[in-house]
Specification:
Distance between the termini: 50 Å
Number of domains: 1
Helix content: 10-25%
Largest sheet: 6 strands, mixed
Radius of gyration: 17 Å
Number of helices: 4
CATH superfamily: tt1808, chain A
CATH topology: tt1808, chain A
Shape: globular
Strand order of the largest sheet: 3-4-5-6-7-8
Order of helices and strands: HEEHEEEHEEEH
Number of strands: 8
């Protein structure tokens, strides 16, 4: 058994120099699985709606790739997450953030799209960590079952599950936004089998 003192912490430099797409979950490096076109189509549907709705002087929306350090210390990263879609209000951006590097804090909204290679336990650990660290909402999108699971930090309610034809409650983050599950899971004709 390895002594905890022998484990070298993962630094921001280590994270940035890794050629693979990774996340760090509770101090452990986790490779991000490859995903297919369904994942991309669903993610871009969500991103397009949010990007159109958001006033860029007040908030920003990102589609896969922006890493969040989750308030970890750069010399010993505990958690670094890369949500599929993320959103943050300008008022929550750390004043010392250098945009050439990962976001030092947490997103206000993290959206994770489940792919066949995702580990369910890691996904639930991430969800709990997001909310514990200050993320307002986490949406877990299940393309195969066409469901959206919405979790809120205020636990009001703890979880809300949206299925086909339902409208998500987005007002806490996006006043006036209408986003339905049909919009999220809409596929082009060539992708429908």
């Amino acid at each position: 058994m390895t002594d905890q003192a022998e484990i070298k912490p993962i630094t921001l430099t280590d994270f940035l120099s890794t050629p693979e797409r990774i996340e760090i979950i509770n101090g452990k490096v986790v490779a991000l699985p490859a995903f297919g076109a369904l994942h991309q189509l669903v993610g871009s549907n969500i991103y397009d709606v949010l990007k159109t709705h958001v006033n860029e002087t007040e908030a920003a929306v990102f589609y896969h790739g922006l890493a969040y350090l989750m308030n970890s210390h750069p010399e010993a990263l505990e958690n670094v997450f890369v949500p599929d879609v993320s959103f943050f209000r300008m008022g929550t951006v750390p004043s010392d953030w250098n945009i050439n590097f990962p976001h030092t804090g947490v997103p206000d909204l993290a959206i994770e799209i489940v792919s066949p290679g995702d580990d369910p336990d890691e996904l639930q650990t991430k969800r709990k960590t997001y909310l514990a660290k200050g993320t307002d909402q986490v949406w877990i999108i299940y393309p195969q079952t066409r469901e959206v699971h919405q979790f809120r930090r205020d636990n009001n309610p703890e979880i809300r599950i949206y299925r086909e034809g339902e409208t998500l409650d987005c007002d806490a983050l996006f006043s006036g936004l209408v986003l339905t599950t049909d919009m999220i899971f809409k596929l082009p004709a060539w992708a429908i089998k």
